[in-house]
Amino acid sequence: MNLTLQQLADQLSSGFARETAGGVVRVVDYARTGCHLEAAVWPSAVVCAAELLDQRGFALDTITGVDWIAEGEMEVIYDYFHATAGWRIVIRSRLPRGNPEIPTISGVFPGADWHERETHDFFGIRFLGHPDLRPFLLPEDADYHPLRKDFTA
Amino acid sequence: MIAPQAICPEGTRNETFVLNLGPQHPATHGVLRVKLTMDGEYITRAEPVVGYIHRMQEKMAENRTYARFLPNTSRIDYLSAMAYTHAFVAAVERAARIEVPARAEYIRVVTSELNRISSHLVWFGAFLLDLGGFTPLLYAFDDRERILDLLEGISGSRLTYCYYRFGGLCNDIDEDFIKGTHDFVARMRPRLKMYRTLVTDNIILRKRLIGIGPISQEMCRRYGATGPVIRGSGVAYDVRKAEPYSVYPEFNFDVPVFPEGDSMARYLVRMAEMEQSLRIIEQALDKLPGGPVMASNVPRVLKLPAGDYCCAVEAARGRFAVRIISDNKEIPYRVKLRTPSFSNLSLFEEASQGMMLPDALALMGSLDLVIPDIDR
After folding, report:
1. pTM of the shown model
2. Cβ contacts of B78 within 8 Å, gap of 6 or more
3. Nearest residue in chain A measured CA to CA from B48
4. What is the pLDDT of residues B273-286, one digit of tens each?
5. For residues B178 and A49, what is the distance between their CA atoms, to the nearest angstrom?
6. Do A121 and A145 contact (CB within 8 A), yes or no?
7. Domain for residue A35, yes or no?
8. Which ipTM score applies to this complex?
């Protein structure tokens, strides 16, 4: 890619600025964190982020959640990597824990389908517009979300 | 003779039927089920159904210390335990700022590469078994057995190694291991040559694999496929080069890439990778520095500073990444395990559409799936 990390960060920032909600992008220390660029975005901007990265040749690495029970929030973490530039980008978005909903990015990256289903299994985060949120790794009648911090077996 | 119409009345030609492949089936190499919608011999939809051996490894990580979770990481992809434990210890070392002695890193490279060869040998044998050739498995397991003996000698385990520790290794290697590894490298090169003439150049194998199950670069990118799958589609993506870790930058090795994207290309990538691993092992043993194999002053119970730390390695099946989120306690707040088989299988539904069933099984074999790696 003919871009520096800072240029990519600026492009993402201006891309988010066009969205109503926006987000914050920063270059981070790879040696400390294991990734090159981090962005915290509003839930409404995750599809925009996926499209911007898709246009720049990034691949979807994984999607996961974190239950920040003390703050009353859920976080969704999207990992991307670039196969030739070797960069790793993390997009984070926080949701209210009481109603964790976020748009699906499976329309942009079909690989997101399974990752989102798994995140729904483990955290009960609903991916709006996802084609099929049936339990994936959990049993087909599972109505619990084991990675929620208040889950008890 | 009965007219065909009598058996197949008008309109029935377009009917499809559902065929369950697995969950107990030798071609799925573990407990994977594929719900196939078939139009005669042709697949109209292949939906993988996973989770039969889901163990909730990520939840287990949240109720034990880092050191007690370490053995779990060798039980995710049981065929590349060295690489998986490497990713976990490296993520912890990154967070705790532990400097690993050079000798330990060299030995990690040697053992990880031996493990990669043994994993590829299992794939080689099992893949040919899928395709109807029984003999190569016996040869492959003979070679693999020697690696298992070597690694057992230093780690005590034959498969689910827990040899790496935060800050180094649990034991140093001995003269027996060094000599045995040199002997293995010397033995393996002619064996690989024999596999070429015996198997790779075989016309039946070629007819079964060339042009079968094409996967484009673009499909790899959209599904996040890595490892020999992406390299068989012409992308030189290897974590050892893209995000160099450990002491890999010290060695000369190539990343085998084949642009065809078919099952043969993925086959050839793995065969060529075994030769590259031998090269790395030789160089690492030649340059092996002295000194300790364990960092001093690593606390018995680690408490990682609050934060988010990732580390990825190139395992036998592709990119394995660990994310640790710490809240400055002795047990992790969250551990995410990103496994290559998961993403590599996710493209199967799209890639297998319209294929004949036996060809789809060749495609599945060329993905080299390990089911506990998908289910975790």
Report:
1. 0.89
2. B159, B160, B370, B372
3. A136
4. 999 999 999 999 99
5. 50
6. yes
7. yes
8. 0.87
